[in-house]
Amino acid sequence: MRTMLMMGAAPLSLFGVALLPLTAHAEAPVVTKKDLSLHQRLITLDSHLDTPASLDLPGWSIEEEHGVHSDYTQVDLPRMKKGGLDGGFWAIYTGQGPLTVEGFRKARDFALLRGMSIRSMVAADPDNFVLATKASEAAPIAAAGKRIVYMSIENAYPLGEDITLLKTFYDMGVRVSGFAHFAHNQFADSSTDPSKKPRYGGLSPLGKELLKEMNRLGVVPDASHSSDQVLDDLLALSTTPVLLTHSGCKAVYDHPRNIDDEHLKALAAKGGVIQMNAYGAYLRASKPNPERQKALMALYGQMREDAKLSPEKRAELLAKRQEIDKHYPDTDRPTFDDFMAHMLHALKVVGPDHVGIGLDWDGGGGVVGLEDVVDLPKITAALLKAGYSEADLQKIWSGNVLRVLAAADAAKGK
């Protein structure tokens, strides 16, 4: 269902999150004062924030505290402070469209404007947000009590067939880029294409050229959403480590968006990192809820009819969404424990040098007990309980992704 809803920008333009069904809270891990104190000492980064979609919502402000149970958004400045999130990689997400000149043009324009929304957020509040382009910049920004804003691209579709356009996004601040999203595109096979058949068997010839350009510029290749064969190509061809900005483990739940242990080990062997997501449909199977799905599809149909929502219309549609949650609750949502099962499995297979966190906030991420960024200290508490040290947690929360970022920057132009 998320495939259908995320093909365009409409779902994000209403709620800031695609599908976040609400139920009663699960029993959450206990976070002690000691846990919280340690969490606040760490530099914490999330490698996949879809929050830029919220920036363009009518009447919505990153400066104000919102509620996941009221407007369905999951990240804003007050909640980042409460949850101890120092920042992350703010994604320029573009839904997959037709592989035509017109399709490429529309996607390019949309992506450039979304990138400018991120830059405008930073420019409007320099006391709280700072754009970062190098790994070494994270620590001083965090030490100053400000939020770290790295930029990334989810789905390279907006580049069209002109890979030199990546330089424009690089100059804007982008330092991580994926290749495909829910469907095959001009660069790579997707892990979830509706055809269920490969188009290229990995990267396309143009995709291989794009990888060369990423390596030349110092942009980290992101294999999330791409097929296993694309990951194979990236590991074989990239001159720098590869990142999975928001993925999970097939050994825990066999879903195309997750990777198996063999690929996980291969990723780590090349210095790469898997950043664990909290998108429920990728964590475990859930019971079908056809009445809820039917009601949501009708609601999203209304949204598509109103491409540019007024604050009043958005409020009306939010009220309808809340009615759906009330009348057709999702009683089988994945939980914090399901998320931790993936996290702990990845740590067991490749260790704390190759695992990080990319929860897919405002893009469908969030489970019972881990609803928004306010809940992040629970992850720290759970990892400490599992026996991981403060040094391990610093790697998991930011050290690993920053290492990969530094490696890409050091190797650029070679």
Automatic annotation (TrEMBL):
Signal peptide: 1-26
Origin species: Sphingobium rhizovicinum
Keywords from the UniProt entry: Signal
Coiled coil stretches, renumbered: none
Classification via InterPro entries: Metal_Hydrolase, Pept_M19
Domain of life: Bacteria
Keyword Chaperone: no
Protein name, entry field: Dipeptidase
Pfam short name (any one): Peptidase_M19
